[in-house]
Amino acid sequence: MVTMGPGQNPATGPAGGNGGPNGSTGNTVYSALIAGVAALGGFLFGFDTAVINGAVGAIDATYEPGSLLLGFSVASALLGCAVGAWFAGPLANRHGRVRVMLLASVLFSASAIGSFLAFDVWSLTFWRVIGGLAVGAASVIAPAYIAEIAPARLRGRLGSLQQLAIVIGIFVALLSNFLIATTSGGATEPLWFGADAWRWMFLAELVPAIAYGALAMRIPESPRYLVSQSRVAEATAVLRRCIGEAAEERIAEIRATLRTDRPPRVSDLLGPRLGLLPIVWVGIGLSLFQQLVGINVIFYYSTVLWQSVGFTEADSFQISAITGITNIVVTFIAIATVDRIGRKPLLLVGSAGMFVSLTTMALLFGNAPVVDGEPSLGPVAGPAALIAANAFVVFFGASWGPVVWILLGEMFNNRIRAAAIAVAAAAQWLANFAVSTTFPVLSDLGLGFAYGFYATCAGLSFLFVARMIAETKGKELEDMPEASTAEADRVRT
């Protein structure tokens, strides 16, 4: 999944230090710690979006909503995500990054309690949308905050903490679902105080939601926001701890950009190609392809998917948890390589690997014999499909999962970054909503058809990256040109 977003939206300014050869590298441990706290928003992002996985079958059995309404209920949080991502930037510019993190903590907590108490599918959908508002805000604020406090030499790796937190959140949600369902004997069985197990799956989110708010109150505010509020001494102190002796130089750069900055507007994005600047279309394209490959189908529906092809409920929960572990492990690959190999090569390798693994899944499901209306994979095709599904997660988690978020925080210049990221993030959540809502309907047409569509999108994503993406590795955010893709360069010439 997921996965998964900032600069001026809340931050139009610098990443927070270059750590170059002529300056101090700052306190790497301190930068990593406060980046880790901000990335807890990513953990809740992952937990909130994946916790529905274990509850889908129980919600279907409890409320019998039908395929379309079930898909809408599962994906409803993503509508909130789009809204939260759109408004998080302006709120953060006005009230500060930390206060928006605290607001997200409150919304996560309310969603957990409300989903636990839901009395029908519509009330559950409402509280899932509330959680989506928090996810959308966290998807923008955490990467932006990290970009603002991180030295440039570490920005890719610290930015990857967001994706690492997301995949850990996904795994913890899947593991929590597995443990709760195992303890109760099934997702629809009563657990503590007579409440069904699937309700406790949602309430489990309350613990990390409260922890997120408590820890957010202990980290410093963004240097760029502090300078914008004329709190220069505080901003200098924060940057000095993060990047060392280069803090004063960076403060001067922030002040210079703030003098020429104005509130971001969507009109800043207008350009010659279908009404938008080429670089904005590139950001939208990255966001769309990240979702159109179908990664969140794995994390939202895998439990019911494996049950539908012959695995038991207990085995399906266990398989989903193993997939979550795989997702975590491969994210470390991205963290270790993104600042050495670069963004574009990782995306190309990821696209190729996803195309092969998704094509394999499409062929296996498409050619499986149908028993009682469902494909039956059998003793050979079943393990092969499991391998292909986890290979898909490997290639996504080591590339498109973290790298898209990193690029969205880097690729836009200061003038357009806020509005551009808002548009790209909203497009990402809307694409996620479309994919998640339509999967039950597509699976009714045939799993081979569904995965064939996702495989086609993976193949197209390779062509998109090869033609449209330029490398941003090692560049300061202040140095990003008006457009940073090969296509934009061709437009200018």
Structure description:
- This protein is mainly α and 493 residues long.
- It has a single domain, classed as Growth Hormone, Chain: A (Up-down Bundle), CATH 1.20.1250.20.
- The chain has 21 helices and 3 strands.
- The protein has helices at residues 8-11, 28-38, 40-50, 52-63, 67-95, 97-117, 121-149, 155-184, 197-203, 206-216, 223-228, 232-243, 247-260, 278-292, 295-308, 313-337, 343-366, 378-410, 417-445, 447-468, 486-492; strands spanning 270-273, 370-371, 374-375.
- It has a two-stranded antiparallel sheet.
- Strand 2 (370-371) and strand 3 form a beta hairpin.
- The chain is globular.
Characteristics:
21 helices, mainly alpha, 493 residues, disordered N terminus, two-stranded antiparallel ribbon, Growth Hormone, Chain: A
CATH superfamily: MFS general substrate transporter like domains
* Spatial strand arrangement across the major sheet: 2-3
Share of helical residues: over 70%
Q: Give the structural class.
A: mainly alpha
What amount of the residues lies in strands? under 5%
Number of strands: 3
What overall form do the CA principal axes indicate?
globular
CATH architecture annotation name = Up-down Bundle
Distance between the termini: 37 Å
Please, how many domains? 1
CATH topology: Growth Hormone, Chain: A
SSE order, one letter for each helix or strand: HHHHHHHHHHHHHEHHHHEEHHHH
Largest sheet: 2 strands, antiparallel
